[in-house]
Records
---
Amino acid sequence: MNVGPLSVTRKGIVSSGPQSLSASRRALSKTLVASKAQYVFVRWQVKEGTPYVPSPLLYDGRLYVCKVNQEVISCYDAKTGKPHFVNQKMDEIKGVYASPTAAGGRVYFVGRNGVSYVLKPSDKYDVPAVNTLDDKFDCSPAFVGDEMYLKGKQNLYCIAASN
């Protein structure tokens, strides 16, 4: 079995692309006409640096993607495709299968080696924190209330602010 990235959608924009190493990431716009016909057109597309396993993240008007399964990320304006930052290396991460996630005004990228990058959702690459757990990760983080859950190869982690 082979896995691939899911499409994401928000406010009539769908980010979608076929699963292949040469895939392009497309932002599509859907318009309904007379409630019967649908017209779809490519609003913008990127042909390099798109994900293979991790799904993209559409958050706060920005589309975040990993390059293939690597620790290299790019961020685009979701409406226009204008790059905010492209091919930014996350030096401490080694490989990415987990999809990026967002909660509490932060964007999270988790590497297979247990290193996670916390980004401010911004037009600039801004990393206020890098964290490490002694485990291997392929699963995307899940959020419930103020808690983040991470399923490692060895353990299940719940991370929350201390009271």
---
Amino acid sequence: MPDKISGLSEPSVLSMIGTILGGAGLIFFAYYGFENIVNIADETKNPAKGIPKALLISIAVTTAFYILVAISTSALVGWKGLSLYGAPLSLAAEKAFDGQGVIILSLIALFATSNIALMMLISGSRIIYGISKEESFPKTLAEVHKSRKTPWIAIIVVMVSTMITVGFSSGGYFYYC
């Protein structure tokens, strides 16, 4: 192992394993969600051709974006600074945009979280629709809107159940009543 870097001690085997598992978990969650593209396959014109293409393009764009972010943050702050700070992306954004970095990063996180929540709601309604189509759930949930061609009853069921869950969860409206 190379000489110790000032301020950093030699890592233990357990911390190295923890770092590897943490990195694997980060990669898993970074790419988690691409399978949701398949849930909306019924709403595309040529799913056999379009879905694989959409998956490959979206994974390639996301990977390129992640690589560019990693290179940019390393160039802005340096690997030592990133390794010593608890929120390295926040540190890089702060350095790049002065005091506005945290606000910009927060807006991006808010947009990304909203997008993920929307995709999960859409996927949930499509899953319920598919199960109902196979007659494992009530057939009513498989009803498709005449003009929009979407499973409107399944969408309403997912929306209402999500609102109830959020309302009764920690921090929700009914939690404090």
---
Amino acid sequence: MILKRVPLTKFIVFLLILLPADLGFSQTKGETISFSGTIESISADYKFIVVNNVNILISSSTKIVNERGYTLKAGDLKSELYVIIQGVQSSNGFLAMKIIVTKPPAV
């Protein structure tokens, strides 16, 4: 009976050690930031765009919509489009959670 509890005990201790550890899998930690601007450039694979000289990572979980809320694809993004970006700071610059393609504000 005691021999069967040893692997379970080791497993529980292992989990307790890992739970508080920051393993780096969560890139969405931190405060949500929102800013807007014109797309300056887009990477060939649509994984990055540059807005206001900031690299913005587009992941598979990034939601891209137009101002009416219709879903768009990363391939719909073009240079010179005005966007509002909501996301978080990441090690590569900025991780976009949501990109809204809209008209630029009136001057």
